[in-house]
Amino acid sequence: MNEIGLKAQDASVAQLGLANVEMAYWNLHPSELVEETIVRGQGY
Predict the structure, then answer these.
(1) Counting beta carbons within 10 angstroms of the beta carbon of residue 3, is it exposed (0 to 12), middle (13 to 18) or buried (19 or more)?
(2) What is the pLDDT of residues 2-34, one digit of tens each?
(3) Nearby residues of 39 by Cβ (< 8 Å), 6 or more positions away
(4) Would you call 24 helix, strand, or coil by DSSP?
(5) Cα gap 4→31, rounded to integer Å
(6) DSSP-assigned letter for residue 10
(7) Residue 42: alpha-carbon gap to chain centroid
(8) Quick check: 29 and 5 in contact, CB under 8 A?
């Protein structure tokens, strides 16, 4: 799994009950969230 952004060292998506996660984005800046939304073609 790839992880991007700032997170607590002991945090994990598994602790949140998520499985088979390829990419996890943690605490991104609003501009990074907007960019990712545009790249994905979402946010209509």
Answers:
(1) middle
(2) 888 999 999 999 999 999 999 999 999 999 999
(3) none
(4) strand
(5) 14
(6) T
(7) 15
(8) no
pLDDT of residue 30: 95
What number of residues does the chain have? 44
Q: How far apart are CA 5 and CA 28, in angstroms?
A: 6
Q: Which two tokens stand for residue 17?
A: 């009950």
DSSP 3-state of 29: coil
| Best CA proximity match to 25, nearest among 41, 11, 44 | 11
Joined tokens for residue 30: 């609003």
Per-residue pLDDT at 1 exceeds 90 = no
Token pair 């790249």: residue: 39
